[in-house]
Amino acid sequence: MIDGLPTNSAHHRVLTLNRTAKKLIMVFADLVALPLALWSSYALRLADWWPTDFLAAGWWLFLFTPLLGVLIFIRLGLYRAVVHFMGAQAIGAVAKGVVLLAIGMWAAAYLSHIDQFPRSVPIIFALVALVYVGGSRLLVRNYYHSLQRHYANKSPVLIYGAGSSGVQLASSFVSGGEFEAVGFLDDDKSLWKGSVGGMPVYPPQSLGQLIDELKISHVLLALPSVSIKQRRRILERLAEYPVRIKTVPSMMEIIGGAAMDALRDVDPEDLLGRDSVPPKPELIAGSLRNKTVLVSGAGGSIGSEICRQALVNNPKALILYEVSEYALYSIEQELSSLISDQELDIPLYPVLGSVADANRVANTLDYFKVDTIYHAAAYKHVPLVEHNVLEGVRNNVLGTRVLAEKALEAGVERFVLISTDKAVRPTNVMGATKRMAELILQDLAATNPATTFSMVRFGNVLGSSGSVVPLFRRQIETGGPVTVTHSEITRFFMTIPEAASLVIQAGTMAQGGEIFVLDMGSPVRIVDLARRMIKLMGHEIRNEATPGGDIEIVFSGLRPGEKLYEELLIGEDVVGTDHPKIMRAREEKLAADDLADLLLAMEQALAAGSGEEARTLLQQAVSGFVPSSPIVDWLHVERAVNEPGSKSAVILPLGARAPKA
Fold this sequence. Notes:
Elements: H1 10-15, H2 19-46, H3 52-58, H4 61-76, H5 88-111, H6 121-151, E1 155-160, H7 164-174, E2 179-185, E3 195-196, E4 199-202, H8 207-214, E5 218-221, H9 228-238, E6 244-247, H10 251-255, E7 264-265, H11 268-272, H12 281-286, E8 292-296, H13 301-311, E9 317-322, H14 325-341, E10 348-352, H15 358-368, E11 372-375, H16 382-387, H17 389-410, E12 414-418, H18 429-447, E13 452-457, E14 460-462, H19 468-477, E15 482-484, E16 490-491, E17 493-495, H20 496-509, E18 514-518, E19 524-525, H21 526-536, E20 541-542, E21 551-555, E22 574-576, E23 582-585, H22 592-608, H23 611-621, H24 634-642
Parallel strand pairs: 1-2, 1-5, 2-4, 5-6, 8-9, 8-11, 9-10, 11-12, 12-13, 13-18, 14-17, 15-21, 20-21
Antiparallel strand pairs: 3-4, 6-7, 16-19, 18-23, 22-23
């Protein structure tokens, strides 16, 4: 039913008829149209409005033809079709039906030896009947759509891309939805001022004028097969206009099962993504095929994507090791569905446990005979780890040592650590703990060649839990403001699938002890990202120049431990590899004795509950670690407040109040 149609109108009464009544009306219409078509074919053939000789000899055909026609149409399912959704397939069925009817009519007339029956009459009849029968249905469809346009109050939109995807998208709006396509935008100059699918094609530079003239609210991007670079260029151009941008799925999403007309908002991949280098099959398969693979942190952003890519590369078995029950449940359900849908014969084992639990880790590795480990289990949110120093050290440092040492004991072939650009000259505890984890693996690799240890360092991934892009989207959808910590802060970005693929390939290339660095492209200013997202979601930025804008950008100040700029290399000693997006860095190591002493002291700091001592030890271990703020660990804050004589420096997070003594 059409929203907005008055319930007491004749239109409403017609459209609310039940299906049986509508079918009877269609049958009645055909019983009228088919004899009329037969009369028309004779009149056209003989140029006589009233062919008396034929009417005298073949009058019974006017009864036979419509009855036979209705039977044929029933057989072809024409009365089951919903007329206002009728398309080319239904018209084809009508054409098939009238051809069969014309043949049947000719056979009946021939066998009855009717005089005055020209051989061309069945041909003319088929053409006229197609117009009458098919046309009556098209008239009903157009009647419905005219009511829809009048009452449904659809938003007029332009479709960017006048190809097959754009035409299909425009057609999908005819029978429903919130939009009405009124034209196309396209970069192809040969299409300008022309018409595609009955709608005009405009040059993209005319968008500003069209927004005012046609009251355009949205521009829909229908370019599923263009490169990421080209898509980003188009989006940057569209961001200058006050319209909301939506897009059809990319070709990879369509291959994955997404519907062509499943519109979605612009994703961060569309804004920041780059054309990735296709993975090398031998590097993907080397660590996965016929291997028992364990992924720690399997429910996280990177861990879950490594699991997905591992599963489609025929591992012997896949172990999901995760400390979060909900995250483990979610990824296990997803992968189980994938195994079922693709009819894979791969054992999947969800194991709940912490990497710091030595017995749980050892039992898991021994029982499943693991060949390859991807260690993605880490506390990664910078402010949270700053406020919980001891747990950051326990999980990221000592947990890595436990998993790596137990991997050695279990005879694991490959161990790949997921590291971060925040490990380079860190200003926060999280980055320092990840660099400490690298140092542990460097030390083990130097003396234990049986297991190939390697590390892969990269920056932010788009759409990961807690990342800035989902936060900005939520803030924009709720009316703002959008909070950016600093006007000059920059970050590297990479899509989750590309990062996971490069991690797997780097791990296969490893010989032992390498730190691989992924090519992250150019850093992105976070405030520029916020501005583009606001504009592409159809809003105007509110500032001094435009006080009447919709969304304001507020600078909240750097959080504890946060850096303005991230780096990927500690030194300058880096060499290329067989993969253009993967580099190998040569970084300094700690002496084995020094590392052992520091780890022992960290264990003692954890036992004593001293976050301050743990952070001091990280400063001794990690070259270049200069904390950006005094310690803000919650337990340290509590102790300082409740011990009046304490002289510990304390800084509280923005908006927090110190507890009362």
